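hey so i finaly got around to running the thing on Polyadenylate-binding protein-interacting protein 1 from Ibidorhyncha struthersii. pasting the sequence first so u can double check i didnt mess up the copy paste, my clipboard has been acting weird all day
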Amino acid sequence: SEHLQQARIPSGSQDKVSVPDSGPEMADSQVAVAPVVMSKLSVKAPEFYPSGYNQNFNQNFADSSFEDGYDGYLTLAEYVQDFLNHLTEQPGCFETEIEQFAETLNGWVTADEILQELVELVYQQATSVPNFSYMGARLCNYLSHHLTISPQSGNFRQLLLQRCQTEYENRDEAAKGDETTRKQFHAFVLFLAELYLNLEIKGTKGQVMRAEILQEGLQELLNVLFSNPVDNNLICAVKLLKLTGSVLEDAWKEKGKNDMEEMIQRIENVVLDANCSRDVKHMLLKLVELRSSNWGRVHGNSPHREATPENDPNYFMNEPTFYTSDGVPFTAADPDYQEKYQELLERDDFFPDCEENGTDLSGPGDQYFDDLDDKMDPEIEEAYEKFCLESEHKRKQ
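ok and heres what it spat out for the 3d tokens, dont ask me to read them lol
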């Protein structure tokens, strides 16, 4: 009792603890009531933001106001570029923020020159930022249907296709250019492929169609890439066909054309004659195998089977994407994959004491890498030789 009488109540609390004056028996029967501490936190306190969080950006998109100069944005380029960067870092926000973004543009884009600037900003982001081509194509499709301005020079979709046409006309020079020029060209090719898959055009009867001009353009781009069979051109062609091959073949078949068969025959000729790396030839063969399985498409009534190298021709095609120290993406399809991947392991110390398939990945000189450098797997080598003989026989016939 004496102890409880001397206890102090924390400041801010109005509660008191009553202590009985009776003897020990009475004290044992009482339950001590814990003091109530009043919080000093206020519901009007500002929100907490972790370090590095860009509060101004989300504030701008949360309260878009045309009268206020678009919440501090002075130019269209600043506003659009900020949103594109945000979309690149957080692609999941597309569905929740695209409507407000389009509404803001409708209040800002009121002249031909501004619409041209918007098209150029989106095009540059889609062809210069790795892995943004898909999101860029989705963005272009949405804006083509929701931007209200339609000047005499053309609406958003028409100006976008005109911008692509400018790049398309330089295809022959770009495919023969230096490494930097080809890299930019390949980014354009893959963006055009995404546009073909995502850009929706309404027909005269209200039906949704794909842009016919893009289908013809992709076919010509494939011809250009195979006509200049250096490694990175062929890799780009494989990526393009993996992305659009099934859709292109279906579209050609609807017209009664057999263009995909001709494309596959051209790939087989490249494998036999082109002076490309062994890894790229192997990738081309896998693409032919993928097409022979109807591009890996499985019918709904087919029983589920776990994918294996034996029953899934696409098994080795879906390689993960890694990034070099400079941020350049690469996959197992790249000819210098082994060198880049080993550099990645050494730089970030991935799997320091682990083994893959029972083989130590400690660095060059081990059995795994030596086998890759010296010769192909016997089964693969046998299959490759058989394919070459059969193709040569077909060509002579």
